Amino acid sequence: MKALVIDDERLARKELINLLNEHQQIEVIGECSNAEEAKVAIESKQPDLIFLDIQMPGKNGFELLEDISFIPEVIFTTAYDEYALKAFEVNAFDYLLKPIEGDRLKESLQKLSSEYERKDKQDVQAEGEKKLGVEDQVFVKDGDRCWFVKLKKVSAFESEGNYVRVYFDKNKPLILKSLNSLEQRLDDKKFFRANRKFIINLDWVKDIENWFNGGLRVTLEDGKQIEISRRQAAKLRDMMSL
User: Fold this and answer.
1) Which of 15, 30, 139, 170 is least enclosed, having the fewest CB within 10 Å?
2) Taking the domain 2-126, which CATH number applies?
3) What angle is formed at CA 99 by the lines to CA 3 and CA 161, rounded to 5 degrees?
């Protein structure tokens, strides 16, 4: 796994790189001291994983994620625990508090390796499968409840950790699946990745408006309002333009 370390403190970068050198599956391909440097490095080197500080001069870690077109796995590294909830809202893989302990880092990397192995197996299984369109019907199970649902009835999919919440009719069951793997199975002409947390059914879009920092906000037929990140907004404009 190729990794990039992003932190405005030189000593913090060096300490983390020294810890990472003990893990053979990680190849540190660079280090950056601010968001502008990181944006260039991420776009050019396309790492599998970034270790990202939150508070930095200029743009912070969250603003950097909104500004890049290539999204690697993200492990936040920070001295402050008050950002933990927001970190997982942007679908970060993990959140490490400084000073980073070797055992805690090892645990995180082991979890990430296991997740990669699981995704690789899913990708192999999905290679021969056709994309699912709005007329396809899928089986959804949540606990003791089950549904056969036509995808045209699904307004959105929302990532919640290792699960995805499926919105249809007045139901919103959770299924054990990652949003990334689900995205690979869906027809991208109908199901659009709005941000790190949501895939939306474009047929359900009722209204669309400009939003902060070059993004968009859509209102779906069921009243749900979902922000489209600046990066994905540009992609949507290109895809839907004449």
Assistant:
1) 170
2) 3.40.50.2300
3) 60
| Angle (nearest 5°) at CA 151 between 146 and 156 | 95
Distance of CA 135 to the CA centre of its chain: 27
Q: Residue 118's pLDDT band (boundaries 50, 70, 90)?
A: confident
Tell me, what amino acid is at 53?
D
The residues, any chain, with a CB within 8 Å of residue 179's CB and separated by 6 or more, are: 91, 157, 158, 159, 164, 193, 196, 197, 199
- Which whole-number Å values give the CA distances from 74 to 58, 70, 92, 128, in the listed order? 19, 12, 5, 29
Q: List the end-to-end C-alpha distance of the chain, in Å, as a whole number.
A: 39
Task: Name the band, by pLDDT with cuts 50, 70 and 90, for residue 80.
Answer: confident
**C-alpha torsion angle, residues 87, 33, 80, 50 (rounded to 10):** 30
Asked if 195 contacts 91 with a C-beta cutoff of 8 angstroms, the reply is no
CA distance 196 to 68: 12
What is the domain class of 137-240 according to CATH? mainly beta
Mean of the pLDDT values across residues 196-221? 94
pLDDT at 241: 77
pLDDT in the model for residue 149: 94
